[in-house]
Design goal:
The complex is a heterodimer of chains A (211) and B (667). Chain A is of the alpha/beta class and 211 residues long. In chain A, strands 2-1-5-4-3-6-7 form a 7-stranded mixed sheet. Chain A is 42% helix and 18% strand. Chain A has helices at 3-23, 83-98, 115-124, 139-143, 171-184, 187-192, 195-210; strands spanning 44-49, 62-64, 72-78, 104-110, 132-134, 151-155, 161-166. Chain A is elongated. Helices cover 61% and strands 10% of the residues of chain B. Among the domains of chain B are: 1-160, Four Helix Bundle (Hemerythrin (Met), subunit A) (Up-down Bundle); 419-521 and 630-664, no CATH class; 523-625, Tick-borne Encephalitis virus Glycoprotein, domain 1 (Sandwich), CATH 2.60.98. The longest helix of chain B is centred in the middle third of the chain and has 33 residues, at 349-381. Chain B has 667 residues and is α+β, with helices and mostly antiparallel strands. In chain B, strands 2, 3, 4, 5, 6 and 7 form a 6-stranded antiparallel sheet that branches. The termini of chain B are far apart. Classes of the chains: A alpha/beta (211), B alpha+beta (667). The interface between A and B is medium-sized, with 22 and 29 residues.
């Protein structure tokens, strides 16, 4: 009998099985972004789809990330050719409306697409409550390490990337993340918050242009 | 109705296999050989039931019975009948049904052919086969149930994945793979049977399963080559092997099985390596299940991903049970597994086989570690890595080259005693051929050391192995006055295993030449062409004639007609296409390949203008790639020669008459 050898063999096999069992709890296709926790890459992009009502910004306006400091920013990369974007469209649009008046900025970023098609798509989908900007040459998408569309980045009030969501979002996901970022916002920014709603109606964009 | 029939057949089969697996050992313990017929009846009944279930599922697919979950998942009214039938193995659940059916078939066949054998080997092997079958039935009633009811019943389904209905090879590669993969359960079951019955000391389990192992190995080899061919013909990237985890999953057990086919001869001839051979066979089986686990659980990122679910945990539990049980059995039997002989000479056939096994085992571990490494890296360091071709190519090339070298030396070495002066004569033709091949490669522009070595050793192995046929046939011509071809066929049928092996070696040489040439001398170019314009790659000129489009039953096709020119003469017309499936956003590129003995012209349509005014094509010159497929055929021919029953020995046979088993054991 050679029980010693058998137990050594069993002892080597056990961690392999353990490793495989652990592996089953992981998604091999999810590639973590190095961005969360770091400062969000800055950008200045032009609005092509103004959005609706309180959330609207005129087309042609330049949105600078630096001007959004103090607000929670939800950055949603999308395209008219993207099927999964259709799934999340109404969720995003509705949630954005429900945060009107709070220091939260929703922003769509058009990825590898032309603004005309994007505008037509928004019309087809029944409108979008928040503005969308064009990203010519996908430069900002590259800065954010975009893997595909849709991807949604949640930036905290201090301008850091807090979360990244790959694939279509649901209302629950957006609410949970935005609420937790609002709750975690430092005192200083929270006090500054009342000024923010006014800024969203267009006052801020003028200062944005002037910079 | 169909759904209930199919599902209940599996439920009954589950009960039957369970009863058989419990009842079998009782019958053996009580020494009631007359009860064994009930054990075997369980094996046959299982086959009948799983066949019924499989046929019912196929009927459900063909009749578009969308009340069955699997049909609703992969079926579509627009899919041609052929692709509807083969979508049986197009997704997870159906593939498990097919697996269970192939296993049931093997079990029924191997038990039927050996039902009269004395001793407890066959009963215990039958029990083992039933236990494995039981596992797959549990999957089918649990996490991989294809027979769930669907309500409301949809009118139509999405159809199979377009890539799986784009080429006829989808009807060939998977069944071959299952026949190979599942077939390896047979030698495993007999290895376990031998340990359970305590009959490990004689080579009974090896002799009973010899043909089954070679058959399974032949199917697995054919499946791997067919998979390479499919990947080459369908995917449009111009390659045939990418070290994808799922490719590796089929290749890893092939390595250990090939090692076993060689080392088993050492046991039969010299009574050595008994423990090693048992372990190799058990390991091969565990690796097939591990491979299936990797494919089916979605644990590792792969282009072949199946849908995920809880099935991974079932496989893992099964692997654990098999490992623990077999380790227990091997340890319990290890005192019976001492070697009868020992290594007598350093430069002998035995040494060549030992080295062969060493390289195959290291090869296996290299591929296995490379495949699992992303998981290890994530567990240990929390980082995502991917291990790609550079790792595998760099790590495995030395072993491949060494194995090809051994393939040339081995057949020339004598058993037991050290090689004498006759060795030089045996190696000389190979050496000359090898130098010629290497020189040709150098002249053609090969500079990589491994590339040149691959040509050198391929030529060497070819020379040595072909010489065995030539010298043997010549001897018969002289001794019996037969014509050369008659002499050759009698030589082969007189010792099928030996010459089957040499035939397989020649197949490996052809594969090696194809792989070495195509990876060294491949040339590719991309161009956007207007009608009448042409592109030249590696001296081959291709002219774009016209773009076209047409509607087919399940898809729209856009194609470009390209002419392969020979001066002003059109040598061949090649039509790469893009297929558009209604259920798929992106088109499925469909390359076309024109083969010659010197190589392939591989054409892929990359893009086109809607009005047909220009197209972008990729042209690849792939030298000697058809040799890989020919080599695959020769490998299978080798397996076939090894499996067919030997010719009855006549008085004029030049072989010394021995006990048949011993004579067969000659490599």
């Amino acid at each position: 009998m050679n029980w010693k050898r058998a137990s050594i063999a069993a002892a080597t096999a056990a961690p392999v099985i353990g490793l495989l069992a652990w592996g089953l709890t992981r998604d091999p296709n999810s590639i973590p972004s190095p961005l969360p926790g770091r400062e969000a890459p800055t950008f200045a992009l032009q609005v092509f789809a103004p959005g609706q009502g309180d959330l609207a910004r005129p087309a042609g306006d330049t949105v600078r990330l630096a001007d959004l400091r103090g607000k929670v920013v939800v950055l949603n990369f999308w395209a008219s050719w993207c099927l999964a974007c259709r799934d999340e469209h109404s969720a995003l649009s509705d949630v954005a409306l429900s945060y009107a008046g709070k220091p939260v900025q929703f922003l769509g970023v058009l990825y590898n697409d032309v603004p005309d098609k994007g505008t037509a798509w928004i019309a087809e989908m029944g409108g979008q409550s928040y503005p969308s900007v064009d990203d010519p040459g996908a430069r900002v998408a590259i800065d954010y390490g975009l893997y595909g569309v849709p991807e949604t980045f949640f930036l905290d009030a201090s301008g850091r990337v807090a979360y990244k969501h790959t694939g279509p979002v649901t209302q629950g996901v957006v609410r949970f993340k935005v609420d937790s970022l609002l709750a975690a916002a430092p005192q200083g920014t929270r006090q500054a918050a009342p000024a923010a709603p006014a800024a969203e109606t267009g006052a801020n964009s003028k200062t944005g242009k002037g910079q | 109705m169909t759904r209930l029939l199919a599902f209940n057949a599996i439920v009954v089969a589950l009960a039957v296999t369970t009863l058989g697996a419990i009842f079998g050992p009782i019958a053996v313990r009580k020494g009631r050989r007359d009860w064994l017929m009930y054990l075997y009846a369980a094996v046959y009944t299982n086959f009948a039931l799983v066949t019924l279930s499989t046929l019912a599922l196929i009927y459900g697919l063909v009749s578009h019975d969308f009340s069955i979950s699997y049909v609703a998942q992969v079926g579509s009214r627009a899919t041609p009948t052929f692709y509807t039938i083969i979508s049986l193995w197009g997704a997870l659940e159906g593939s498990i049904v097919f697996w269970a059916w192939v296993l049931a078939m093997y079990a029924a066949a191997v038990v039927w052919f050996n039902r009269k054998r004395e001793g407890n080997l066959v009963p215990y092997a039958a029990v083992t086969l039933l236990v494995v079958a039981l596992f797959f039935h549990i999957l089918l009633v649990g996490p991989a149930n294809p027979f769930l009811p669907v309500f409301p019943v949809p009118f139509d389904g999405p159809g199979p994945n377009p890539l799986l209905q784009n080429h006829i090879l989808m009807g060939v590669h998977p069944p071959l793979l299952y026949l190979g993969y599942v077939g390896l359960t047979v030698p495993f079951a007999f290895a376990v049977g031998a340990m359970l019955s305590g009959e490990v000391a004689d080579d009974g389990w090896i002799k009973v399963t010899r043909r089954w192992t070679i058959t399974a190995w032949g199917f697995l080899t054919a499946a791997i080559i067919a998979g390479m061919w499919w990947s080459y013909e369908v995917l449009g990237w111009g390659g045939y092997w990418a070290w994808d985890p799922v490719e590796n999953a089929s290749f890893i057990p092939w390595l250990t099985c090939t090692a076993y086919l060689h080392s088993v001869m050492v046991q039969e001839r010299r009574g050595m390596l008994k423990l090693w051979n048992l372990n190799l066979m058990v390991g091969t089986f565990v690796l097939t299940i591990l491979g299936t686990f990797l494919t089916r659980s979605g644990i590792i990122s792969s282009v072949h991903a199946f849908t995920q679910g809880t099935i991974g945990y079932y496989f893992l539990a099964f692997i654990g049970i098999v490992l623990v049980a077999t380790l227990f059995l091997v340890a319990g039997n290890s005192d019976k597994l001492a070697s009868d002989g020992r290594l007598d000479a350093p430069l002998s056939r035995e040494t060549a086989f030992l080295l062969n096994n060493l390289f195959f085992t290291v090869f296996m571990f290299t591929v296995l570690i490379g495949t699992l490494f992303p998981l290890v890296a994530e567990a240990v360091r929390g980082v995502k890595v991917s291990v790609g071709e550079p790792f595998f190519n760099k790590m495995t090339l030395p072993m491949m080259v060494a194995l090809i070298f051994l393939m040339g030396v081995g057949p020339a070495l004598p058993w037991k005693k050290a090689a004498g002066p006759e060795l030089k004569g045996k190696l000389l033709p190979g050496a000359i051929l090898g130098v010629l091949f290497a020189a040709a490669a150098l002249v053609a522009g090969a500079r990589g050391a491994y590339s040149v070595l691959a040509f050198l050793f391929a030529g060497f192995a070819l020379g040595v192995n072909v010489r065995e046929f030539v010298v043997g046939a010549n001897a018969r011509v002289r001794a019996h006055g037969e014509s050369w071809l008659v002499a050759l066929s009698r030589l082969v049928s007189g010792n099928r295993r030996r010459y089957g092996g040499y035939t397989a070696h020649i197949g490996v040489v052809l594969v090696t030449l194809g792989v070495a040439a195509s990876s060294t001398f491949k040339q590719e170019q991309e161009a956007t062409l207007k009608p009448g314009e042409s592109i030249t790659v590696a001296g081959h000129t291709l002219r774009f004639k016209a773009a076209w489009g047409r509607e087919e039953q399940q898809r729209q096709v856009i194609g470009a007609t390209m002419e392969w020119m020979d001066g002003e003469r059109v040598r061949a017309t090649i039509e790469p296409r893009m297929n558009y499936y209604p259920t798929q956003d992106a088109p499925v590129p469909t390359p076309e390949v024109k083969s010659t003995l010197r190589g392939d012209i591989y054409l892929n349509l990359m893009a086109f203008k809607q009005d047909g005014s220009n197209v972008t094509v990729k042209v690849i010159w792939e030298p000697l790639v058809p040799w890989i497929w020919m080599g695959g055929l020769v490998l299978c021919l080798g397996a076939l020669i090894g499996v067919l029953p030997g010719r009855k020995r006549t008085a004029d046979a030049p072989v010394v008459v021995r006990a048949p088993a011993l004579a067969e054991a000659q490599p």
